[in-house]
Amino acid sequence: MEALELLVRNTSEVLTLEGTHRERAEDALTPRPGACVGVRDGVIAFVGPEAQLPAGAVGAGTTVLDAQGGFVGPGFVDPHTHLVFAGERSAEFDLRNQGATYLEIAKAGGGIVGTVRATRAASEDELIQLALPRLRRLLSHGVTVAEVKSGYGLDVENELKMLRVVRRLGALTPVELVPTLLCAHAVPEEYKGRREDYVRLCIDEILPAVAREGLARFCDVFVEDSAFTVDEGRRILTAARALGLVPRLHADQLTALGASELAAELGAATADHLEQVTDAGLRALAAANVTAVLVPTSTLFLRMRPYAPGRRIRDAGLNIALGSNVNPGSAMSENVALVLGLACLENGLSAAEAYWAATRGAALSLGLQRQGRLAVGDPGDLVSFSCASYRHLPYHLGIGHARTVVKAGRVVARQELDSCG
């Protein structure tokens, strides 16, 4: 055997995640007790007992990574972020803690439009310098792939600017970035009272410009009382799909308006949030095989109830993904460990279901067939944790245990962490 570039050994177990979301989650993680992992040419070349390594697998140029008895799994995939923005909204956070609601703040001229003003005023270089620390914090938790939305430009020039920033960031960070157009995030201030004109701008100008430059893989719409109607979402996403962009929706977050049913109707890749999803919405999503993306940090941050009904969603047969939703207004946190804990405590998922949702489930939601998994031939994106079991991650609430993060076979982040039980 040709020598490996990287060998990860001395593990408690390796989770390869070669199962499906339709089986028991503990089985879908497909654990390999005591296995080692070998990477060559950036992809997984071996998973199994170290005693079964072929002759010549470890050579003079092989980097040997000691997992110190911790478990190893695929890199986390964050399927829902708003990483690129300028400004901050701590004053709104303070108002919410004094009783103001998200919708009240938005209707008073705050919320998304405040971030739009700051983001429009920032240059591409400034946005990159603001986003890089956020990406580094995600990477420190073990995130190797992240979706990134636009949505704070809300005109042709600035939506293109944001997506160009995402493309440039992809060359500056080890984290693989998946771009999403979210021009239908809010109606900008200059279109107040002219909603139809802004919808036409999205359809006639922003979407074609993004498609011409190949700047996005997905198109998302925020269907909500303070944002866009079901009919407006249908028109925008139908136009996006005709241009080759895959539909996604912010659905049923604050009110149940039928966004889940729209996601099913359009064959969307995902319906995200779902705090207010109805039984009819769940049936429609399941029938259309739409992935449910849960973002529990937002529910916590906004001090709202209920959390998305993860147990009902799982029992309905949907694939589930977990996202950080890092953004300045409703989830100012890159703490993936907190996401996992809240998914168990508040969304009702088991530790295995939460781990699936943050890895393989999230990768599938982005149409990535080989990420979030550690089978031979998959990308060499993996994390060595300081704990012996994935069950410790949501239990040790909000504490990151990613000791070493590997992207395409290369160590890209490392932390000195003591082993934990």
Concise account of the structure shown:
With 421 residues, the protein is α/β, with parallel strands linked by helices. The protein has 16 helices and 18 strands.
Give a written overview of the molecule.
This protein is an alpha/beta fold and 421 residues long. It has two domains: 6-74 and 372-414, Urease, subunit C, domain 1; 77-365, Alpha-Beta Barrel (TIM Barrel). Helix content is 36%, strand content 20%. The protein has helices at residues 25-28, 90-97, 102-107, 112-121, 124-140, 156-170, 195-213, 230-242, 259-266, 279-288, 296-301, 310-315, 336-345, 351-358, 360-365, 392-395; strands spanning 6-9, 13-15, 31-33, 36-40, 43-48, 63-66, 72-74, 76-78, 143-149, 176-184, 218-222, 246-251, 270-273, 291-294, 320-322, 382-385, 402-407, 410-414. An eight-stranded parallel β-sheet has the order 8-9-10-11-12-13-14-15. A hairpin with a 2-residue loop joins strand 4 and strand 5. The longest helix is centred in the middle third of the chain and has 19 residues, at 195-213. The relative contact order is 0.16. The model has no long low-confidence stretch (mean pLDDT 96).
